[in-house]
Amino acid sequence: NVAVALKVVLIMIFVGFAFPRLTLPVEMAHDSFRLSAFGLSLVWIAFSYSGWNAAVYIGGEVRCPERNLPRALLLGTALVTLIYLLLTAVFVLAAPAEQLAGRLEIGRVAAERIGGPGLATAVGALVALTLISSASSLVMAGPRVYARMAADGYLPRWLQSGQGPPRAAIFFQSGIALLLLWTATYESLLTYIGFTLGLSTAATVLGLVRLRRREGVNLPVPGWPWVPALFLLSVLGMTIFSVVSRPVESLLGVVTIGIGLLAWRYNVMRKSFSSSPLQ
Q1: Which residues 6+ apart lie within 8 Å of 198 measured at CB?
Q2: How far apart are the first and last CA of the chain?
Q3: I need a labelling partner for 17 at 20 to 30 A (CA). Which of 47, 57, 62, 118 fits?
Q4: Cis bond leading into 70, ω under 30°?
Q5: pLDDT per position as a tens digit, 66-90
Q6: Burial of 113: CB neighbours in 10 Å, binned 0-12, 13-18, 19+
């Protein structure tokens, strides 16, 4: 909590320092706009917002979850949206587009244009702090999902937490993360994970739609049916653009989800067989 509060304050200080020093471009070029590139960028942007739902993963440890979880989801999403838009405005307006295109460290480039090398170093440290706190929160949230799934019989039993934190699941997640980092470029990894997460969230919303159709008005869904429909159409569009622009990463995402579905089906069949009266 302290790390998150600190990075939010530092980001807002940087934005407040940068905005008076920004200059609007005299002319905006539109001749290089490509719809496919824009659609693919939406996958990366959506990935920037991933994590707002992580509060649900520790719902069993939250006081008054029926009240506090919706608050956490809504306030977290609103805060991330505000910070994302402010930072993006600073980055886009701080330097010419040709200096930002294809660069990973656009925050450092923008900061150097605004305040010189000293500010660039400070922003680099701020980015590192942001990544550390994000990694820390996901190390807490992610393995607890695996441990819970293992306890429910959907993953191997050795991933269960038992007493204390889910150490086996933490090591398992760390190993997968290192493997991905060592075998893929940054852009490929971002596309693969963003594509896979997009399909996963779409599956979640489809599940919500099925529940709503089955339960009717007893299951309140804000914005029904337009909000779920708009979300699913957006994910469909991003998926199509990803397949067209990055077929290899998209195929790997489909394979990943396919392996998960096969493992789930095998587990269901195994449970059914073990509970058969013939056993």
Answers
A1: 43, 46, 235, 238, 239, 242
A2: 51
A3: 47
A4: no
A5: 888 888 888 888 888 898 899 888 8
A6: buried
Alpha helices in the chain (DSSP H): 2-18, 35-49, 65-94, 97-100, 106-151, 167-183, 186-215, 226-245, 247-274
Q: What is the DSSP letter of 22?
A: -
Tokens 């009717």 found at: 216
Angstrom distance (rounded) from CA 150 to CA 152: 5
Q: Give CA torsion, residues 236, 42, 127, 54, to 10 deg.
A: -20
Question: Using CA atoms, how far apart are residues 262 and 256, in angstroms rounded to an integer?
Answer: 10
Task: With beta carbons less than 8 A apart as the criterion, state whether 56 and 65 touch.
Answer: no
User: What is the three-class DSSP state of 226?
Assistant: helix
